[in-house]
Design goal:
This protein is α/β, with parallel strands linked by helices. The chain has a single domain, classed as NAD(P)-binding Rossmann-like Domain (Rossmann fold). It has 7 helices and 8 strands; from the N terminus they run βαβαβαβαβααβαββ. Strands 3-2-1-4-5-6-7-8 form an 8-stranded mixed β-sheet, sandwiched between helices. The chain is globular, with a radius of gyration of 17 Å. The chain starts with a strand and ends with a strand.
């Protein structure tokens, strides 16, 4: 049975991603900062008949928490097939490029960028034991430099600077990581789930959580001949799903 760890998985897109992978037969580890919320999420999944799931306490902002999560998971399994770096924050708004407090930048980058790197490095050995390891970094169209430089692309009148920069950095890390692993079985990709109605944006997005999660799941299930080092964005590349960085 294939295994997957999803960070930030007790609600919203992370939770729905867990549900969809459970339905596909994966054993899912819900990465949650608050273990109680993770256990509550599991009760909901159990009520739906989805039982191959456990909660793992992990705070991606805390190196000791990440190390402990690796220790806990390593005592349960020797192979991790899929890692979905889903945990993320938007940061205090508004985020003007010249006026945003440095604390906002450091907080947002800690979760959206440094946290992803720390988690990926911590669990890499378990993934390296998989025959078909997949790493999915949940990003945003707002992190695409190509889209920001396209005059026909309109998103926010005032761009959230810290969030945009953190996701652009995450996209760059995804490219480099995929390149580092190009001669292996790893597939490493970034996925834009789309402008989705969640707590993250006060439910202002037009997209649905199930559709957003399906995009993440698609990258987690790539076949052996699937691409790596790509930026998947159905919203911005309707024909192929693969959008320019």
């Amino acid at each position: 049975m294939k295994t997957v760890l999803i960070t930030g998985a007790n609600k919203s897109i992370g939770f729905e991603t867990a549900r969809q992978l459970l339905e596909k037969g994966y054993y899912v580890y819900l990465g949650c900062r608050d273990l109680k919320k993770g256990e509550d999420a599991i009760k909901q999944l159990h009520a739906e008949g989805l039982t191959q799931v456990e909660a793992i306490q992990i705070d991606v902002d805390d190196l000791e928490s990440i190390k402990n999560a690796r220790k806990v998971l390593g005592a349960k399994i020797k192979i991790l097939d899929v890692l979905i770096n889903n945990a993320g924050i938007g940061g205090a708004m508004p985020q003007n490029a010249l006026e945003t407090d440095m604390k906002v930048f450091t907080d947002v980058f800690q979760t959206n960028f440094f946290g992803v790197i720390a988690v990926t490095q911590a669990f890499f050995d378990l993934m390296n034991a998989s025959l078909a390891p997949r790493i999915v970094n949940v990003t945003s169209g707002l992190g695409s430099l190509a889209l920001h430089n396209d005059p026909s692309w309109k998103h926010f009148a005032v761009k959230p600077t810290a969030y945009v920069a953190s996701k652009a950095a995450l996209n760059a890390y995804t490219i480099v990581l995929a390149n580092n692993l190009k001669d292996t079985a790893f597939k490493v990709n970034a996925v834009d789930p789309g402008y989705t109605a969640t707590d993250f944006n006060n439910h202002s997005g037009p997209g649905t959580v199930p559709d957003a999660a399906a995009r993440v799941v698609k990258a987690a299930l790539l076949p052996d001949d699937g691409p790596s080092g790509q930026f998947y964005s159905d919203d911005n590349a309707p024909d192929t799903g693969i959008s320019p960085w």
